[in-house]
Amino acid sequence: MVCLAACFWRWSLLQKGIVRYTFDSQDCINIRRHVWRCEKIVYNFKSMINNFVTIYGVMVMYKDEIDMFTLDKMRPIKILIVDSNINQKTDQLIIDQLKMEKLGQYVDSIITRAALDKSFEAIEQVFQKFRKEDQKRNDNFLAGLLSLDSYVKILDFINMNQSVLKARGLSNRNINFIWAIARKYSVGCKMISNGGYMLIFTLPHVMDYDIPLLKDELVFYNYRVIETTMSCDGVRIE
């Protein structure tokens, strides 16, 4: 929806005789506003984090729906978006999720909540480290990049999150299969949307030839794959 909104926004500028080859900050604000409006109409909710990340191409930490800070000076990270071939309507997925949450009280919820609390606490520590490093960086920020250990922790949290979803019955056979394939290549993988899409998070040191191999294996099993990059220019004109 972000790309569609960006296309219409540039088209509206062209109608006014304004030619843009790059979107400025005000353009991004307008695109963001239109995306939220469309999501509210189509889905009856708006995804603040997903849209912000897509438009600006950066990692962002939110607290109480307020963007605390962005990480726009990071090493670019390759990610894959995988279509798990699940064709379900958002409303039905929400209903199913509510049912599972109700059933969850009869599952080992104490252990699950304890694991989540521990995960969130650790994630908070990693992102606070990100924030401190981001504040210390100067124009020559490549010398101050975060250690690989911080990226590994994020990868572990992503896989842990998917493990919890699976344990709670909020996953399915296709998603579990994609997750199993991804873990063979030492990457992080989790469900990221009600539409059944999966995020695959790669580490900076992952060999370039590993990503095509992973993509080829997913395509072999008829899963559509989109490759993109985090810490990039965000939505742009090509």
TrEMBL record:
Coiled coil spans: none
A GO-annotated cellular component: cytosol
Protein name: Uncharacterized protein LOC105433102
Organism field: Pogonomyrmex barbatus
InterPro entries (UniProt xref): GHMP_kinase_C_sf, Mev_gal_kin, Ribsml_uS5_D2-typ_fold_subgr
Signal peptide residue numbers: none
Keywords (A to Z) from UniProt: Cytoplasm, Kinase, Magnesium, Transferase
GO term, biological process aspect, one: cholesterol biosynthetic process
Domain of life of the organism encoding this protein: Eukaryota
Sample GO molecular function, one term: mevalonate kinase activity
SUPFAM superfamilies: GHMP Kinase, C-terminal domain (SSF55060)
